[in-house]
Amino acid sequence: MKPRLDPRTWSLGSKIGATLVIAALLPMAIISVAATRAGQNAVEKAELANAQGSALVGASSVSEYLDGVSRRAEQFGTASDVIDFITDSESNSAPSFGAAKSSPDVRDILVLNDKATVISGFPEASVGDTYPGVSWFTEALAGKTAVGEVKPDSNSGRFVFTVASPARRPGQAVVGVVSIGVSSEDVLFALSQSPLIPGGQALLVDKGRIVAARDHLYQGRTLKEVGLGGLLSAIKKSPKGTIAKVDLPGRGAQVVAWATTTTGTTAIIVEPRDVFLDSINRLARNARLAMIALAILAVAGAITIARRLSKPVSALTAAAQALEADEAPDAAQLEKLGRSRDDIGLLTRVFMRMAEQVAIREKKLREQVRAMRVEIDHSKRAESVEALTESDFFKDLQTRAGDMRQKMKEDLTGTATTADDSEVSDDATKEEA
Prior knowledge:
By secondary structure, the protein is an alpha+beta fold. Strands 1, 2, 3, 4, 5 and 6 form a 6-stranded antiparallel sheet that branches. It has a 5-stranded antiparallel sheet with strand order 8-7-11-10-9. The protein contains 10 helices and 11 strands.
């Protein structure tokens, strides 16, 4: 017995249905998988681009903010009262710095002479401090506005960004330096302009150390300490970039994007990969649901088509089986199928003509068989009679019958003679009387 799973044992309808399902689902599955993968790649690229855009926005906001601080430092560096006090502090009063002291983002304002000594400042406790060899003082004294290395504030524990500008009258030599310090909280406000997905983090890194972060637990720690040490080499290679997956201790897989600011710090965006891939997963899930729906429709359509295609063939098969069993096929159904103009209709009409011819031939054949049977019966009788007459028994019977006839003749002849003699004697007697 052949297994049921053997396609060779399936009915025509099952074969047609299976063929249609395979023909519909296989290309559909291939196209769906290819489209889903292409969509996932496109969405992933788009999301990575969004993360990169967030990092660029953060870096640009920080740079713009520090540029604004630089412009304020330059204004102080060219102010007459500042220049006069640097050149002759005994004859001139210390600059008041106006409303700058009350600005919420300003942490200190320092006026330094060319010896790196603070001669005036806010707060006043800073007067007398010296900054020999500090990068921002050296660059500013050389005539260039500079953002110095980010330093932690020993009093508040926050990081301070120092922006320095040369002090000089237009067209004259540099006589000193004016610096403005702002805290990381103010820089963080600018960094926070970068859009983030739920669970995302914005970090500002200076030389591998996190100097500003939305999550204060990160602030002050190095990238290596938080599990992002691998970014250091990537940041050195390129001022901006993205990494699709980074395993962050305690936070799982993350997507990371970075962009370097004009001041040398780096804005880093860290976003949960699960949330980042939510749109991708939703796309894949929708594609699977669409595939299932289409598969159901394809199967239903295949079954309907298979039944429509196999129904007339099944009817013809039943008619052929009826003829084989010497029964009359369903003439009404065959006539209905024969009205169709397709191949099934043509096949039905040919089958009906063939069935009629078979019936006629079968009738003639039966008549011939009946005639042959009669002829065979007569022939058998003749042969039986001939065989009987030629047998010794029959011949013996014939001989006995002949003898019996001869004896009967003789007996009849003797009887007749005796009767004649009796009649003559009677006549003589009568005459004598």
